Amino acid sequence: MRRLLAGNPDYRRLLAAGLISQTGDWAISTGLAFHVYQLTGSALSTATMLLVSRLPDVVLGPAAGALADRWDRRRLLVAADLLLAVALLPLLAVREPGQVWIVYTVALATGVLGTVLVPAQKALLPQLVTGAQLVRANALHGQSGQVARLLGAMAGGVAVEAGGLAAVVWIDVASFLLSALLLWRVRPPVADPAPARERGPAGGAW
C-alpha cells in the first residue's frame, strides 16, 4: 500500500480529490439536515430534503456509470466538481422557512451532479493503476469513502452549529474547488479504455 501511494502521484491526487469532495458532500448533507430542521421545526421537511438529495443515486446510477464509461473521466470529474461548487451558492440566500424550496432544489441538483463522481473515479482507476496494485487501489478508495462519511458528518454538524448554513456551504464549495484542482493535475499514463459497447463480455469490470 505504501509503495502504491509513494510511487504514483496521479493516484494520490485522485484519492485525495475523492476524499475531499466526498467529505464536503457529507458535510453539506449533514449541515442541511440540521439547518432545515432549525428553519422549519419539521421532521418531514428534513426527511424530504434527505430523500431528494439521495434519490438521484437510485434513479440515475446506471446512466451515470454509462456516462463515465463514454466520456473523458478526468474532465468529467473536473466539470462535475466545478458545477457542484456553483450549484451550492443559492443556499446562501436561504433565510426563512418559506425559502426551504431553495434547499430542495439545490439538494436535487447537487444529487444529480454527484451521481457521476464515484463511477467516474472508479473508471479512472485502471488508467492510473495496473496489475496487482489495482485491487489495493480499489480497496483504499473504498476505505477513503468511509472516512469521508465520518469526517463530513462531523464537520457538517460542527460548522452549521458554529457558523450557520453559510459556513458549511463555503466548506463544501472549497472542497469541490480543491478536488477539481487536484483532478486537473492528473495525467493518466494508460490509454483510455474503449467504451463498454466496444469491449467484449470480459470488459465490464464496473
Automatic annotation (TrEMBL):
Keyword annotations: Cell membrane, Membrane, Transmembrane, Transmembrane helix, Transport
InterPro entries, per the entry: MFS (IPR011701), MFS_trans_sf (IPR036259)
Superkingdom assignment: Bacteria
UniProt KW Methyltransferase keyword: no
Location relative to the cell: Cell membrane
Membrane spanning stretches: 76-94, 100-118, 158-184
Gene3D superfamilies the UniProt entry points to: MFS general substrate transporter like domains
Sample GO molecular function, one term: transmembrane transporter activity
Keyword Transport recorded: yes
Membrane topology: Multi-pass membrane protein
Gene Ontology cellular component terms for the protein in this record: plasma membrane
Name this polypeptide is given: MFS transporter
Originating species: Nonomuraea terrae
